[in-house]
């Protein structure tokens, strides 16, 4: 996962269109990055996680590469398998 400082440095280097798009979906990216980091820290491959969830490895790959955003139900299922809890926090 990107640190706050590293993230700011990357954002500053983006052109305006890319920056606007990134900031629009930043929360989604943060969630997916947390899932990836946790999966890797647990020593799981995408295939192993998919098998535990009854999904195809390609589904996990599409989620992790941000090609496809999972439904809330699927996101909750993945988070639970990784020992994470989805929580909403007021900004």
Can you describe what's shown?
The chain is mainly α. The chain contains 6 helices and no strands. The mean pLDDT is 88. Residues 35-89 form the HTH cro/C1-type domain.
> What gyration radius follows from the Cα positions, in whole Å?
14 Å
Unreliable stretches: none
The overall strand count is 0
Beta-strand portion reads: under 5%
Termini separation comes to 21 Å
- Averaged pLDDT: 88
Query: What portion of residues is helical?
Result: 55-70%
Order of helices and strands: HHHHHH
* Number of helical elements: 6
Tertiary shape: globular
What quaternary form is this?
single chain
| Global structural class | mainly alpha
- Outline the biggest β-sheet: none
Structural topology:
Elements: H1 4-13, H2 16-24, H3 26-41, H4 46-53, H5 57-64, H6 72-81
Short structural summary:
This protein has 91 residues and is mostly helical.
């Amino acid at each position: 996962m990107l640190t706050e400082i590293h993230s700011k440095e990357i954002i500053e280097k983006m052109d305006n269109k890319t920056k606007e798009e990134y900031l629009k979906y930043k929360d989604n990216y943060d969630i997916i990055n947390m899932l990836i980091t946790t999966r890797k820290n647990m020593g799981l491959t995408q295939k192993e996680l998919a098998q535990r969830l009854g999904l195809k490895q390609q589904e996990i790959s599409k989620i992790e590469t941000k090609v496809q955003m999972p439904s809330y139900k699927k996101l909750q299922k993945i988070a639970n398998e990784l020992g994470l809890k989805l929580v909403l926090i007021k900004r």
